[in-house]
Amino acid sequence: MSCKHYKNSPQKYYKIISFATFVGLLYACSTTKKVPDGEYLLTKNTFEFEDRKESIDEELKDYVQQKPNKKQLLFIPLTLGFYNMANPKYDTLLNEYMTYPDEMRNQKLRDSLFLKYNMKSSVGKTLFLDRLLHSWGTPPVILDQTRSEKSTESIEKRLIYRGFWDADVHVKHSIDSASKKAAVNYFVRHNDPTYIKDYYYNITDPTVKGLYWQKLDKSLIRSGQRLDQTVLEKEVTRITDLMRENGYYRFNSSNEEVYFVADSLKSKKQVPLTLEIHKDSADHPYKVATIGNIDVAIVNEANDFPKHTIKDSLRRIRFHKMDNNYKTSSLWRAVIVDSKKVYDQKNLDLTKRNFIAMNNFSILKARDSLRRGGGTSPNDSIVDVLYLLKPLPKYELKVGTDINYSQLLNLGVSPSVDLTTRNVFKGAENLSTSISGTFGSIRSTKNIDKKDLAYEISAQASLNFPRLLLPFDYYKLLPKRYTPTSSILLGASVQNNIGLGRVNFNTGLNYQANVNDQVSHRLTLFNTQISLTKNKDAYYSYFANDEIIRDNTFKNFFAYSKGVQAIANIEDQFNSGQVSIDYVSKQIITDPNYQQTLDQKGLDLLTAFKGTIVNKDRQTQDIIISSMIYNFVYSEIGKKDYPNAFYFNGKVELAGNILSIFNQKRDAGGVVASPQRTIFGIPYAQFVKFDIDTRKYFKFNGNQTLVLRQFIGVGVPYGNSKDMPVIKSYFNGGSNDIRAWVAFGGLGPSDSQVDERVRTYMTNNLKLTTNIEYRVPFNEMYEGAVFTDIGNTWSIRKPGEDNSYGDEFKFNKFLGQMGIGSGFGLRVNVAYITLRVDLAYKIYDPNKPEGDRWRFKNFQPFKPTLNIAFGYPF
């Protein structure tokens, strides 16, 4: 290739050069660059199973004492590359530097270490890049053959633990002296496992024996099973939980009361197994414990109880208060445990959780103990419970400024003032009031390549009750252990997001109940929003692209009208103000003769014009939305028992049915919108809407995570609405959606070929989004990710129906109408905040013409879609 040829075709080769540069940065230094002579970089551990594979074999890798450097992005040891890129001159110094606390790591410390390691010429250097690479990187793992031998012992012990008593493990090292690399091969022979021949149980206490017998069908142990110690451990846990649920206080607290005995004298392959449950060596009987005294004290200091408190009681619970600031009934609702009932530790834990959830108290002490009898001897069947609560301050004021990224704002700043007033009506009710503002930038409606200032100023008030606001006693229907709460919301906001601004008012009544740590229900009995559009007449001033399309359409129509006697003067009437823009627009879209005179270019312009009319009617519409919402959440996220967590969030919203009873008066409608019934002159919406958000998390290779997310949203307007309200419709793009497109960034709806200047701000009533993200931690602070986002929005109209413009959902076409974006990102974890930066690229754009939808030939690595946000996208 000549130099001349390259200069004439720079875009043809820069992609290859960019990739080569990236790879070169990682591998310019060999992975063995910092491996000392005579030693070897451990590159992999392999397992060869000489007789068969077993389901437990995957866990054997965890018992290998030496593991190769972790590979990120599935195949690249990225952190080793970072470490090798750091100057080896400073490795020893930086290893010591990183042992110091964060607050001591400064230039003074670095200079002292330079002097210690005879590097006087380096005094004053920050070593910023080397420190960054060193902190991100991990040193090479050097083969230690003695640790390999110890690993075989650990693997053998694990196999024995899992029931393979005759297992045999040996190791072989594959060393490549030329490349200074080594691999370790572990050869595993399981041989025949040991089975449970017969299963017996020896339980001397008849009541405990009876409880165990009742739940014997739940037992994890059966004759003929492999003798697996992990299964025995789970059975011990099951039995312990069962007994504690049935009143045996601190059953097996020493972990010595429940155990198994295996008789291997006659055979090591068929072994009788016996379950033993004994309170002690003397086989004293167990006693079912009951709850005795339940004391709840509201004090300022722990020593205020009991001498500075006044005693009160309600339904077998004793309350001790220094004043009457809190109603006894409000405290009683939080107490799940009940006097004279059989002890259950879960009820004690739930009571503690309820007091914390009230956001009125800090817990000074939560104690349960056996009641003392005569002298110092305890009564081993009565458990007394005590909670000491300290009231939190009456008022709590928070002033702050957040940096955020929403589905609309690209990047915003949000100053806020929040005031919490506790115990408003002496029933632990909290009033939360806030005034906040959000200011940022959004894609301009006049020029989609530019940004405009957007803002929202809002005032919100929420009155929260630690009970359900119902006119009847609901405790038999909804137990206290579900921690039911209610809240009344009232708010108002003024916003300027997309061109025209809005004034919004909202109010609602919400009920919530938590069944357990995974399941919660939320019912919004009524949620009423009034959304009023500002500056309706200025629509075309804000949406300048729509105005251009309108002017071109009007020009074509006026030229056509001169030959039609009935409308020959319509241009003069429009110019003189005798007829409005809406009147002319309606004439255009309802005149079939005009449409027959258009060529393909004219028809495309007319389709775009119809899109502008739909936008205008919807963007300028005032609307009342009064709905009932039910939300069900199942979440395993953050629970230690669910490493591969699952999340489900389902929501159903039904709007407008109650309002439809009160009024039949209709407005005049819009250009394409039909007349609608109104309340106080404002149309109300009728629709049903379903949202489903599911996520699955897979943990593997240490802390690496693969996340799959599927979102399905459907809104069905009916009755008084032919379209979903804009604020309840779906759109594409943004940092938590399809990241290759910004919010309202031109993706969708469907594969519509409507002019992008119009299509950009169209919303729709069906949305499908699939997200796949692979997360790789570099260290505790930094985490990388690669992702792919797929999805789009559609309408559920029939082809050719009013207001349709090629956006209808069709089962035989929707897969090919999905937008696809991919990219990579960095997460920075500081305290409890995660800063996220994602760079995304369009892979498949369904709104481009056929043949130009795959974007590989237009790929520009230095022009990604930048997403800056806080928190994980899902």
TrEMBL record:
InterPro entries: Bac_surfAg_D15, D15-like. It comes from the Bacteria. Residues 500-856 form the Bacterial surface antigen (D15) domain. GO terms for cellular component: outer membrane. It is found in: Membrane. Gene3D superfamilies: membrane protein fhac: a member of the omp85/tpsb transporter family. The chain crosses the membrane at residues 12-28. Keywords: Cell outer membrane, Membrane, Signal, Transmembrane, Transmembrane helix. It holds the Pfam family Omp85. PANTHER family: SORTING AND ASSEMBLY MACHINERY SAMM50 PROTEIN FAMILY MEMBER, TRANSLOCATION AND ASSEMBLY MODULE SUBUNIT TAMA. This is Surface antigen. It comes from Chryseobacterium oleae. The lineage of its organism: Bacteria, Pseudomonadati, Bacteroidota, Flavobacteriia, Flavobacteriales.
